[in-house]
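Record 1 of the preview.
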Amino acid sequence: MKKILSLLVLVFGLTAHAQTYTNQYPAALNKLAQKWAKKGEWKNGFTKAVPAPTVNLTDFYIQYHRNPAQWQALFKWLQETDLLAIPGGRTPIPGTSLVVSVEDSENWCSEADLKAGKGSESHREKIDFMYVVRGTEGFARLDHETSKPLAPYKPDRLEYSFQADRLERFESIPGTFNIMFPDDWHVAKVKTQQADQHLRVLVIKMDYAW
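->
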């Protein structure tokens, strides 16, 4: 526990907004976070999915330890709920301030949309927890070095100008979840190579703990 606390104190002194989408944390903290994630101490009985390879495990580790009750409640609800049977729309998680947006939608952002600079966002006060339970969702993550905010920050969203050829592309499928932290400037619902672009995805706005 002393080791955890000392490393968390260290990251308080680091900037909350790194200059690229690569991990900027100390190697010791990254190693500790990877070990913690692999061990599954975050699960609280959750067995339906694991973090996608694109999740910043160090951010996950830090945020979990700053607000464990919130994360424990989320994973407990996800485990105990039939995620394909619940109705679309907004569903509160009992005993918390968390609300689940159950989205039956489709990937809409085309290559032309990306070249036109559409669909980007990031958040400072909230974390986007995204869990696809049916279908495949496409994502693009922006390069901080060549992307710039289009307007001053207005809670709780920023949009960006970006270069489509500098995007990091990835997909989210059932069995994994993605977490978009403040440094994860991203475009969601990017069209994939799949024949069917329809999906069911859960989006939960988690509190970002400073």
